[in-house]
Amino acid sequence: MAALVTPAASVVSELVVRGRESAAVLEALLQGGSPQEHGGIRELAAEILLCCDRALAALHGRDGVHAVALASRKRRSSEPDGAASQTRPKRRMRASSGSTATRVEKRSTAEDGHIWRKYGQKEITHSKHPRLYFRCSYKHDIGCPATRQVQQSDDDLSLYVITYFGDHTCCHGDEAVAAAEEKDVKMQPFVINFGIGSATESSTSGSPWQNSDDGDGRSEIPRSSHAVCLPEGGEADELRLKVTKVETTSLGSQPASPAAAELSSSPDVSCASPAWDPLSSCWEWDQFVESSFDFVSRFIDFDDFALYQ
DNA sequence: CGCATTTGACCCGC
DNA sequence: GCGGGTCAAATGCG
């Protein structure tokens, strides 16, 4: 089981947790019964399905797309011929300068569902905050040209100005699922039992979901800038999932991330989540996985995932 | 050891 | 020449 704490397993963990968060909010909405709140129910349900679907996809893709991605990330070694190292024959491509931005957004979080890899940071004159440069993690794998720049707004420190360049060619649809489909792997039904381990049980010795923001006020960028890829418009229709029981329980004290806060439209619902680093679109996996993987494993019989390996 | 991140240097457009 | 975007060696972590 410990061997499952891999990047793929981490992704699965987070996805399922997010699914559970959404489920908790969903139930709160249902209990509230306010008609105006029902507007979000379908969206939440879609989120749940999508998260769980992604969890499956992550496992399906581990030997496929994800493995390919990992394998080809190796940096080009220094030029073997000294002459080449003397000069820089390669012209540098400028994705942003000269070309227009695909879109510019101001958001409270840099999360956008895609996997980005930071490749630079620059202090910008007349700007208090550095600009961070990201490219799609699949740039070198499948040549996804998407890049983005993230800069904290000087006007509103809670906002991040995100400028996108280029369109993603990597996450149109779910390539992991597609890879699984190519292999004709059947999505077998499995059970996520959110009820195993009651709230009281899981929240005994303090909250395992403590916000990592414990005072230094500055979230470091985690080692991995892999955000969970949750592209918009994903369909979870092939998902064969049985959620046997969902309990809305107070697992944590408060949402630990903007994303969780967004999900948690009801103040009565406490959603647990890893700490989110808005600048790098990263979950703080170190704290999250260690503290919660065991917890998450209560919900999931990971033995079922052996089916996909 | 392999990987992602950091960061100084290089390159390019204005 | 300057400012900003990108590269890639160095670094450090798992």
Characterize the structure shown.
Keywords: DNA-binding, Nucleus, Transcription, Transcription regulation. With 309 residues, the protein is α+β, with helices and mostly antiparallel strands. Helices cover 31% and strands 14% of the residues. It has nine helices and nine strands. It has helices spanning 7-32, 41-60, 65-71, 82-86, 139-142, 175-182, 199-202, 258-263, 285-299, and strands at residues 103-107, 116-122, 131-136, 147-152, 160-165, 190-193, 241-245, 276-277, 282-283. It has a five-stranded antiparallel beta sheet, with no helix packed on it. Strands 6-7 form a two-stranded parallel sheet. Strands 8-9 form a two-stranded antiparallel sheet. Helix 7 links the parallel strand 6 (190-193) and strand 7. Helix 1 (7-32) packs across helix 9 and helix 2 packs across helix 6. The two termini are 14 Å apart. Mean pLDDT is 50; it is low at 1-8, 33-37, 59-89 and 172-309. The structure holds a DNA duplex (14 and 14 nucleotides).
